[in-house]
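Hey team,

Filing this mostly as a record. A colleague (T.K.) asked me to run one chain through the structure pipeline before their review meeting, and I want the input and output archived in the tracker in case anyone asks later how it was produced. No errors, nothing strange. Just documentation.

Input sequence:
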Amino acid sequence: MSKKDKKKRTDSMEDKKKNETRQSTMQNRMENMNGQKPKTISIVISVYNEEKALHEFYREATPIFEALPWNYELIFVNDGSADASGQILAELAAADPRVRVINFSRNFGHEAAMLAGLDHSIGEGIVCMDADLQHPPECVAQIIERFEEGYEVINMVRTKNKSAGFIKNLTSSAFYKFLNKISDVKLENNASDFFALTAAQVLKTNYREKVRFLRGYVQNIGFNRTTIEYEARARVAGESKYSIRKLFKFSINTILCFSDLPLKLGIYSGIIVGFLGLL
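Output structure:
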């Protein structure tokens, strides 16, 4: 083994030990702080330019989470925010040991932020949600009830979205119906990036493609699964970070992730064009 390989191996072992020490320290700190609650739930919140919403989220959600039968930790993933979100998160983490912050060097996207939160979570259960309070914090109590009933994957299905117009609600429903028609994987209509699972190790070690559709992966990993319906609130502050262009790109990537129809169409078109070229 070369000196370079030995150094890489040593660095890797040191990083692993540091990570294990960090997780052990966090677990001990939370146990001492929260008493004898049996388990911990990790709540992952993706943040991108949410300076107007963060204080309101923390103020409203914290009392709800403190009443939970499980310990909790808040993992905020700052997805390269250009506003004061990073500073606000640093202040929250300094004041509350249950708050942890992951900072991205730039905007890598919502899916990457949620995966980073999953990777750094220490809880027996994990919830992914947004910081704008469209995902009601009070639903976490229902999620824990389902976990204790033996469910391992919980899809949160949106019944109504107060901040979305008629056109957006209509196109969202149509998109899921179309995707289910062309894909072997059947997804819940109006499933969102608000989901929970205890089988997080699967997502920590698999589904690491550059182009992802995490809410689809959650519905495709198997295990004992259930759904909880919720009504999305009006956004507490800010606006949607998905432009028409981003939504279109996201839709195309999702179709490519879950259907081989585009590949088949490309192959058949090539065969037809090649045949016509021989005539």
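Quick notes for T.K.: The first helix runs from residue 3 to 34. The longest strand covers residues 153-161.
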